[in-house]
Sequence to fold (502 residues):
Amino acid sequence: MSWRIKPLDAIIASAEKKALTRSLGAVQLTLLGVGAIIGTGIFVLTSEAAQKAGPGMMWSFVIAAAVCAVAALCYSEIASMVPVSGSAYTYTYAVMGELLAWVVGWALILEYAVAASAVSVGWSGYFIGLLNSWGIELPLAITAGSYAGGIINLPAALIALLITALLMIGTTESARVNAVLVAIKVTALTVFIVLTLPVIKGANFEPFLPNGWMGNGHGAGLGVVGAAASIFFAYVGFDAVSTAAEETKDPQKNVPIGLIGSLLICTVFYLLVAAGAIGAIGSQPVTGANGEILHAGSAAMAAQCQSLMAAGSEPLVCSKEALAHVLRSVGHERVGDMIGIAAFLALPSVILIMLFGQTRIFFVMARDGLLPEFLAKVHPKWKTPHVVTVITGLAVALFAALLPVGKLADISNSGTLFAFFMVALSVMILRIKQPERHRPFKTPLVWVVAPLAMIGTLGLYLNLPTESKLVLPIWAAFGLVVYFLYGYRKSHVGRGIVDTDH
Fold:
């Protein structure tokens, strides 16, 4: 019974009835993509990736980008056929039925909410670093969770709540602010590249693969592929472009341009930034007392970093504000502060986009009757789904207050990789089941690209740390309980409420 499918025509029709305004063009969409992609991944996770792969993290960026590119091509085909909000959830509903759509939507909730928390923690690292460089020390108790000897990461929780409030007030305002913030981020990364490339030392790239490709048998989540599974987070957000399909002018043409364009721009930036960071100050992993590899975000790693800093050296892998730290280390103290300020200003835009994507998916699931209807309420004055925005914002603030950035990023990735896997599968099923349907954008070499996307996403998922891999099935199981207790009975499709008149 739960294989009930929501026909594509019905999806498009119900979207037109409760529609969002179409106001975004190709350039705005690419900017939205670049804005969503450039964020915590590059500003913060550079140090996490260095701990896992050393200089080999250059390959990690390439691997993650390649998986994203094949996933993006599959995404583009379905996004151009079904130009409505809800991204992978909506697509799965149309192709594989309600039960799997529910699981995908539930995984996307995990992706966006946890990602927004991760970015909040990343922002907090830069904020605290900035205050330190101006001589203001905040007590550890309110700047880190128990994983690093503190109690609560207060700045991270506060920024999450602030963005939630902004998002409730409206979208166009946020799109304008976003354009300015993207400019700031791109400028900051460009300045970083210009200042670090001239001081690169070849010796800093040796050994290039200290932990090998797969962690040299030290467990999941290490080596170049393990770092790629984490650094994948640096590209998450390009699917925010397809989530915005319902608000895009001429989505058939503009969505693919936005997806592929933003991915290309970001990959080039990332490789140059990674080369600059590694070449300028080195990026070898920190090892324990007996030469063992330490896991990023672990208590042992935090302790080892503290003792190194007490001895007067702070390696790249220990920094919570990697890019600012690199510049300060090579003598650009004030420019390092400027990068800190840029991250301080720009990372909130990523939180905003993640929260935006998350609330829209909740909104669409409620619109389909799978979640309580009151969640789909739109505020009479602000015209935004204010109820789900508040609920999401509170959850995001809680996670941000208690967990380290790397763990959050890995958990978020597990949800994302699952959603991308399902999209690639949907594209192939639709090609067989509905070959005659109009496809404004066709995935090139679909029988090569879609399987590659599935293999790539599965491969990265299997290389996540064990606890991050386990979160997804546990979360999914919890989601199924909710579905069978509520969504299964209340679903519009299940009750025969389907709009096809348009």
About this structure: DSSP finds 19 helices and no strands in the chain.
